[in-house]
Amino acid sequence: NSASKPPPTPSPLRFSKFFQSNMRILVTGGAGFIGSHLVDKLMENEKNEVIVVDNYFTGSKDNLKKWIGHPRFELIRHDVTEPLLIEVDQIYHLACPASPIFYKYNPVKTIKTNVIGTLNMLGLAKRVGARILLTSTSEVYGDPLVHPQDESYWGNVNPIGVRSCYDEGKRVAETLMFDYHRQHGIEIRIARIFNTYGPRMNIDDGRVVSNFIAQAIRNEPLTVQAPGTQTRSFCYVSDMVDGLIRLMEGENTGLSILGIQLINPDVKIAMVENTPDDPRQRKPDITKAKELLGWEPKIKLRDGLPLMEDDFRQRLGVPRKN
Ligand code: NAD
Ligand code: UDP
Ligand code: UDP
């Protein structure tokens, strides 16, 4: 008889919500470059509890060392291609290698991370009613035929090339986000991130800013990939994190955001071969981010690069000459 049954146990999330207004935030890929800066910012708010999930493929515990042991912080070694059962209010889903060297290293794994990983995080968001933000990429535009790129552009992507595991993987991840939104009413946010730079980037991850800074510090020639006329827009990591938090907290679902000073005057330039499918020009149209989020980058390249140089010099053990 039902009268003798115990009352249903509230879920841990509802239970904790009943007593406190802390926001429990999951950051997948939180041990990586952008993720660890995002964690630093989220931890500044005393009402936030932050849980990082990472498999340490390109990230490291070192990036989070100041938070390990903190009562509002938790670090879990976990691969997002496996299901994850936890209780959270918000999910920042960043887990995925971002550098071409790493995402091409095991392309099948990159696709699994983007597709199965995003599916799992959406399943989690659906089960617990969490809002989820995906860090997509300007690579969804491929080698763009429209310049600059705004959110309405569908892109020009090679589906079978060596970058496709990443580009097409992120495109499917975006599709999954919108289908979970339409079919299950999940609250979603998508940021199409353009090239971001700053301290804690992997020194040898092969991207242009990290390569040039490391090469200048090591007194090696700067490797300009042919033809050398391709263009990018660079965003300093603190501006990126600010944009991601505004997007998560704001009311707009699907919108894309965001988008040398000489370190060594003697440095030489070496023209080297380029990689296949390298986009020739890329620049975000950030009108919508400005209008809807009040966001625009504040840190100029000339101010951001020295901060990254300091970090690289420290890690490479090469002090600045005065
Ligand atoms: P990163 O490589 O430093 O960080 C990615 C993190 O995800 C790492 O800590 C890595 O260990 C983790 N990870 C990878 N696969 C995983 C898996 N299967 N399970 C769990 N963890 C996994 O890269 P980043 O520059 O910090 O990029 C973060 C996000 O932003 C990525 O989704 C990337 O696609 C996106 N993005 C970055 C840029 C950029 O310029 N840095 C540009 C566009 C998009
Ligand atoms: N999932 C997860 N954590 C959860 C809920 C779901 O990792 O808390 C995974 C689940 O294993 C599944 C995916 O998310 O592979 C999609 O879940 P959903 O419930 O949407 O679909 P279904 O389980 O019906 O395929
Ligand atoms: N690039 C370069 N030298 C390098 C690394 C990259 O000239 O040592 C060029 C590359 O061909 C591309 C641009 O810099 O046109 C940006 O490349 P990166 O890998 O940093 O990022 P992408 O925007 O291609 O993801």
TrEMBL record:
Single GO BP term: D-xylose metabolic process
Q: Name one GO molecular function term.
A: NAD+ binding
State if Transcription regulation is listed as a keyword: no
Q: What is its main location?
A: cytoplasm
**Single GO cellular component term:** cytoplasm
Q: Which domain of life is it from?
A: Eukaryota
Pfam assignment, any one: Epimerase
Start and end residues of each NAD-dependent epimerase/dehydratase domain: 25-251
Known function: Catalyzes the NAD-dependent decarboxylation of UDP-glucuronic acid to UDP-xylose. Necessary for the biosynthesis of the core tetrasaccharide in glycosaminoglycan biosynthesis.
Which protein is depicted?
Answer: UDP-glucuronate decarboxylase
